[in-house]
Amino acid sequence: MKYEDYFKKYLDAVEAKLKTVMPAEEKHPPVIHDAMAYAVFTGGKRFRPVLTLTACEAVGGSIEKALLPACAVELIHSYSLVHDDLPALDNDDVRRGKPTCHKRYGEAMAILAGDGLLTYAFQLLAQVKPAARALSMIEELSTAAGTYGMIGGQVADLAIPPEDRDLPALDYISVHKTGKLIKASAVLGALAGDAQTENLERLRRFGEWIGLAFQAIDDMLDQDGYVQVLKAKDLRLKSRDLIAQSKREVKPLGKRGEKLIYLADFLLERIPRRTHVAVDR
Amino acid sequence: MKYEDYFKKYLDAVEAKLKTVMPAEEKHPPVIHDAMAYAVFTGGKRFRPVLTLTACEAVGGSIEKALLPACAVELIHSYSLVHDDLPALDNDDVRRGKPTCHKRYGEAMAILAGDGLLTYAFQLLAQVKPAARALSMIEELSTAAGTYGMIGGQVADLAIPPEDRDLPALDYISVHKTGKLIKASAVLGALAGDAQTENLERLRRFGEWIGLAFQAIDDMLDQDGYVQVLKAKDLRLKSRDLIAQSKREVKPLGKRGEKLIYLADFLLERIPRRTHVAVDR
Is A32 in Cβ contact with B119 (below 8 Å)? Predict the structure, then answer.
């Protein structure tokens, strides 16, 4: 079954919740709310919020309890794309076939829209009940998104010239730029589902493995990153290993964890059988 | 007595706490931590964190309890300056006699340093105990910093052409761009001091009046903003009124609130007797 069909209920729930929580109002700043919405409603796969909902369910929680953190995670992801696309960073004009936020709304508004999304993610999490849970989520997400997490990965991506990227450097970029937020998505879901320590750590490790697999497979699809230092065959092997490890982590959860297994298998299916460009060396 | 002498204990405490909490570590992202520190340690007046400490003390708390939120407020202020100075926004090369963050570290790093400071402010607040207090602070600060607060003011500042700025437009920009964060600085101090509702609202109103006075006086000193639509005499009158109102709010706090009165009087002293440029019209 296709990802979109299998997770229809989850995707619809995330979309509906995002529409409800996103700020939109008359008054001076409507343009920034337009720019923020433009960045959030882009037809993405919603991999991170779906992971949050699925992780919550896997530890026995209802998906409703995970919707706020799922939105917060997606806002952080969206802000990071808006700022990464800016001329001073990756200078990308197009994302998913549409003009990037700064091409559509101008650079100033894109910077502020990113700031707004980042700020708003924490404002949303502050609404989670009870207070202790909200706080654990804010701690987790701010750490994952900050300079020891996602921003640190982006800095390394800017600071290390392509010719100096060995496997440890690429691992560092991948773990931080992509892995930490995906791991946090799983952890926030487990927290929303009131997971006991053992399951929380299980989901944390699941998020870690699947985050690394996600980046490795993306690199194969984009012919970027890891393909520069790993033979195509080895990168396929690495990805399959990571996904196998992630699945092993959540097997003990039984039937409740089966959607996590599906999510891992969905990534597995994206692994190209053969890479288009011969990069074996 | 000079501000720096009167508040020496407070300024030293803020400086020491900022030095302790700011991230600084070996590994790939040291440059971003350098850029963040560059933005934070600029020799500013620390008006907002001093207000936080003073507000805490005014409701009976010790300044130690207000140091974390005071730092968080200053990080938000610092991030906003870094992003406002960017070429796509105000395009400022110099701030307080030194190259702006993007002139020193490049545009990409300045964008990410701003993101890092914003993220880190919430990470710091998540450490406040108890959880319910931390959460109230995060809610307050994220709202004040977001699109209905500071970012909204910045958007209006970009979106409304100078020739269309009437008094309501200037009030909107001033209230949002400057006022909301100053108000939040007072509220976070009151929350840190475990203020009862009546005093919390008192400090909220104090923060509101003093935030508006702060901007009005800054405009007089910079010959900007309000000086375009108000006669110099009327603007002086407006500032004095706002400061008088702020002082009335905290008078009932008695001796404990006297440092807030000093803070208000300190602003009063900054009002120029005569403006250099004749803008009366």
Answer: no
Cα dihedral A106→A107→A110→A115 (10° resolution) = -150
Residue A95: in which H helix or E strand, if any? strand A94-95
Are A55 and A73 a contacting pair, CB within 8 Å?
no
CA dist., res. A250 & res. A196, Å (int): 14
**What H or E segment, with its residue span, contains residue A99?**
strand A98-99
Looking at the complex, report in whole angstroms how far the Cα of residue B26 sits from the nearest Cα belonging to chain A: 11
Model ipTM value: 0.95
Nearest by CB to B155, from A31, A114, A126: name it: A31
The CA radius of gyration of chain B, in Å to the nearest whole number, is 18
Looking at the complex, report in whole angstroms how far the Cα of residue B96 sits from the nearest Cα belonging to chain A.
23
- Provide mean pLDDT across the span B155-162: 91
CA dihedral (B263, B151, B146, B103) in degrees, to 10, reads -80
Question: How far apart, in whole angstroms, are the C-alpha atoms of residue B146 and residue B180?
Answer: 10
Chain centre distance of CA B213:
12
Measuring CA to CA, how many Å separate A84 from each of A41, A102, A277?
17, 11, 26
Distance CA B141, CA B82 (A): 18
Give the strand pairing for B94-95 and B98-99. Answer: antiparallel
Please report the DSSP string for A150-177 in residue order: HHHHHHHHHHS-GGG--HHHHHHHHIII
For B9-63, the pLDDT digits (tens) are 999 999 999 999 998 765 656 899 999 999 999 888 999 999 999 999 999 999 9
pLDDT, residue B24, reads: 77
Predicted TM-score (pTM) of this structure? 0.95
Of B115, B123, B142, the CB nearest to A143: B123
Spatial neighbors of B261 by CB under 8 A, at least 6 apart, are B247, B250, B251
**Residue B151 to residue A36, Cβ atoms within 8 A:** no
Question: Would you call the peptide bond into B130 cis, given omega within 30 degrees of 0 as the criterion?
Answer: yes
Residue among A48, A100, A101, A39 nearest A72 (CA):
A48
**How far off is chain B from A116, nearest CA to CA, in Å?**
6
Radius of gyration of chain A (CA): 18
The proportion of chain A whose per-residue pLDDT surpasses 90, expressed as a percent, equals 86
Q: Which residue of B has its CA nearest to A90?
A: B108
Contacts of residue A115 in chain B, CB cutoff 8 Å?
Answer: 79, 83, 114-115, 118, 151
Extract the runs of DSSP E, i.e. beta strands, from chain B: 94-95, 98-99
With contacts defined as CB-CB under 8 Å, which chain B residues touch A33?
Answer: 147
Mind listing the pLDDT tens digit for each residue in A180-223?
A: 999 999 999 999 999 999 999 999 999 999 999 999 999 999 89
Contact indicator for B207, B240 with CB cutoff of 8 Å: no
